[in-house]
Structures are given as C-alpha cells and as structure tokens.
Amino acid sequence: MSSLTFSLFSSPTLIFLLAFLLRTVLLVYGIYQDSVSALKYTDIDYYVFTDAARAVSRGSSPYDRATYRYTPLLAWILLPTSWGGLWFNSGKALFAVSDLVAGGLIMILLKRRGLQEHKALRYACVWLLNPMVANISTRGSSEGFLCVLVMALLWAFETRQIALAGVLLGLSVHFKIYPFIYGISMLWALESNTARSSSNTMLQNALRFLNADRILLVSTSLLTFIALNVLMYNIYGAPFLQHTFFHHVTRIDHRHNFSPYNTLLYLSSAQKANKAVHGLASSFSFEALAFVPQLLLSTILIPLAIAKEDLPRTLLAQTLAFVTFNKVCTSQYFLWYLIFLPLYLPNSSLIAQTRLGATALALWLLGQAVWLQQGYDLEFLSKSTFVPGLFASSLAFFVINCWILGIIVADVTNTSAGTRTDIATLSQPSKSDRVLVMPTANDRASTSSEDKGKTSEGRSRGKSIVDMNDISNVHLGPRNRVLKSS
C-alpha cells in the first residue's frame, strides 16, 4: 500500500489528471442536477455573473443586473457564457481549470522552499484533490480565478520580480478588494540590507524604509490599480465605483453567512426596511465599525509580527483573520485561505502533532456542519433558528477559526525563535564544548617564561584540564585549526 501511495504521489501527471477528472465529473453532474431538480447545483452568484455578461454582450452595463457587485472584467471574461447552449457552463470550466493552474503554482512554490517533488505533490493535493475546492469552482464561484492571481503574485515576489508582483497586486485588488492586505506584508518583508543603528534619526529611518524595491512595488501596484479603475469609470461611470467598492463598506448580507455578525445583520436589515426605525438608528452603523478589529488584525498586527519571518505563512494568517472577522463569511471565502494551506503544512505543528491536526480539521468541519444544519432549517424548513441555534453555531465556528489562527501564528513565531535560540547556543558554547586554539608562531615566541616552566603532564586553563601527554601523536593539521577538547 505504501509503495502504491509513493508511486501515486511521484507522478504529477496522474495527480493533475485525477484533479481534472474530479472537476469534470462534478461539472457534468451539476448540469444534470440543474436540469432535473428544483435544488440547483449552480451557485446563485454564477447566474449573476452570466446575466452581467449577457448585458455586456448587448452593449449595456453589467450593473444593469441587480446585485452585480464585481469588476466589469469578470463580465468581460465570461462573455462566451452568453452564446447559449453548453457555452453557458464555460465559466465554470474556466474556474475549474484555474484550480489546476493554481495547483501548479503551489507545486512550484513548494519546490522552491526545498521540498522534493513527491512531497510537494502530496501537499499540493490538499488543494488539487480537495472536494470542497472542486465543488465551489464547478458551482460557478470565481474564487479559483482569483487564487491563480494570488499564487502568481506570491511566485513573482519570491523570485524577486518586484515590478511583476506590483502589477499582479494591483490587478488582484481591482478584481477583489481583500488582497490589498498582502501589500502590507510584502512591503514589510522587503527589508533593506543597510545595517540598523540606534543613533539614526527619524528621517534616516524613513529614508531607509523607502528602499528601491518598496518604491517599485508601491508604484507599479498603484499605477495598475488606478489605470484599471480609470478605464472602468470612463466606461461605466459612478455605478462602477458604487457597486465594486463602496457597496462593501455598508453591505448587509445575512444569507449563507457564517459570520457572528449574521444575526445583527438580519436585525439591521429589518430596521432599514422600517424607515421610522432606520431614521433613529442612522446615527450608528455597526456595519462600518465591524471593519475595525478585522483590519487591525489582518493589516497591522499580523504583518508587523511575522511578515519578515515567513511570508506565505503570514499571508495565510492574514487571510484567515480577514475572513474570520469579516461581517460576511460564505463558503467561497474559505478558498481565500485554503490556497495557502499547502505552503504552511510541511513544517506545521498540525502535521508534526497528528492529534492536533486531526482535532483542528474535525472541529473546522464540525463547526460548518452544525451551522449548515441550522441554516437548512431556517431557509428550507422555515424554522426560526436565529436564536440560539444559528447565532450559537456562528460563535462556535468563529472561536474554532480563532484557535486555528493562533496555532498558525505560534508556528511562525516559534520557528523564528527556535532559529535565534540555536544561533545563540552556537555562539556561546558550554564548558563541555570548550575549544583549544593552536597558537601561531608569533604567539609561541611571546610565551612567558612562567608558561615555559610548566610541566607537560597537564595544563590548567580555568577550571578545565587539557591532557597533553599524547599531544605528539595527534595530527594538528594547518595552524589555527580549532580542536574540540574531550
């Protein structure tokens, strides 16, 4: 069985073929289920995407389709879905293929981190053969396409192609807002090689921070982001800004929402439906305040703490924090951080401690299952499960994610602390590891007469004794050779 497993994971062609077949089966099954069942396999967002693409194909704005809250680029990319017939599912196929491309980039990044191909392939399977990832993409979620951009961004950054990384960062943020948090970590990781000095002034430290790579990353990402936004604004006007960016600040979405804010959003939406109540509550909007803990953690605290230690792990921690603390959290958002999981696992405590890893996975899946059961009762059986069922399950899933986030951050800090401890230990050897450095000719010539008078039987050196009886039988090699004492 072990030889079969090894041969399986030693063949990238076979793994990618299995990943392709998994998505093909799900895609075909989805088409069949949509044709015979009232419960559709296709995600509701895919209908929004394709309706917007159909509007664009007719020369209209994608924002003519209500609830389209994305960049027009997505509607442009999905134009073939408006051709009718099986072309309607071409967007799903594109997102499924994007999964495979992202898996290939994961393989490249893992091998750059020193893993052999069969080990890199094994960890890449966490993404490639993950049924949740395949299901979400074949249902028509565009997250797989975004994950390709994010992995390409990380690859460009780690290969020191800073200008390309900046372009990909600007494109990613235009496509979906959240990747802007990665720019903070990348800037912090681009440390200057100039030696630090405590006597430097604030101006000197600021100038030192603004090194060439940081300036290049910021300028290319901003230019790309601004150019795309100006282009879209010139074509579609104010609706582009409103639906693509501003809408997310005050967004209220309590359906399919794992966030602990779910119940509060439901109550807030009810208040806004009642104009009299909404007028009283308009002075306070927790929807905007919900960003405070989310952004504080994902854009400031985590990058400053660990970005210089391990960038891929930092991006995982940032994304998990961003999704966990977001006021809207759906299953598609899980892909935002699952894409980084194969890069984290090889040296993680979740793998080193099997029981810990199994517990984390079981709790993460159980938290979703409990929430989905409550959501099913609410939406399909019309049972009022908001309190305590849905609210309690949301809080439980939130706590589970926070616990896993703590493990990830601790892994990075412990790894870096262990490295520093090892260096410190090597620089300060214990008494048992003291060394004898053979003196040079000049040192021997300057030896005092008092030292010459000492017997050859033994020489006292502090509290240690070096036996000199058999010194003539020891090959000393070149001068200045360092010998460990016994």
Automatic annotation (TrEMBL):
GO terms for cellular component: endoplasmic reticulum membrane; glycosylphosphatidylinositol-mannosyltransferase I complex. Residues 449-460 have a biased composition (Basic and acidic residues). Its EC number is 2.4.1.-. InterPro entries: PIG-M (IPR007704). It is an enzyme of class 2 (transferase). It is a multi-pass membrane protein. Its main location: endoplasmic reticulum. It holds the Pfam family Mannosyl_trans. The keyword Glycosyltransferase applies. Pathway: Glycolipid biosynthesis; glycosylphosphatidylinositol-anchor biosynthesis. Residues 437-467 are annotated as: Disordered. It is found in: Endoplasmic reticulum membrane. One of its GO terms (molecular function) is GPI mannosyltransferase activity. Keywords: Endoplasmic reticulum, Glycosyltransferase, GPI-anchor biosynthesis, Membrane, Transferase, Transmembrane, Transmembrane helix. GO terms for biological process: GPI anchor biosynthetic process. The keyword Hydrolase does not apply. The chain crosses the membrane at residues 12-32, 67-87, 93-110, 215-236, 288-307, 319-344, 356-373, 385-410. Mannosyltransferase involved in glycosylphosphatidylinositol-anchor biosynthesis. Transfers the first alpha-1,4-mannose to GlcN-acyl-PI during GPI precursor assembly. Required for cell wall integrity. Belongs to the PIGM family. PANTHER family: GPI MANNOSYLTRANSFERASE 1, PIG-M MANNOSYLTRANSFERASE. This is GPI mannosyltransferase 1. It comes from Exophiala viscosa.
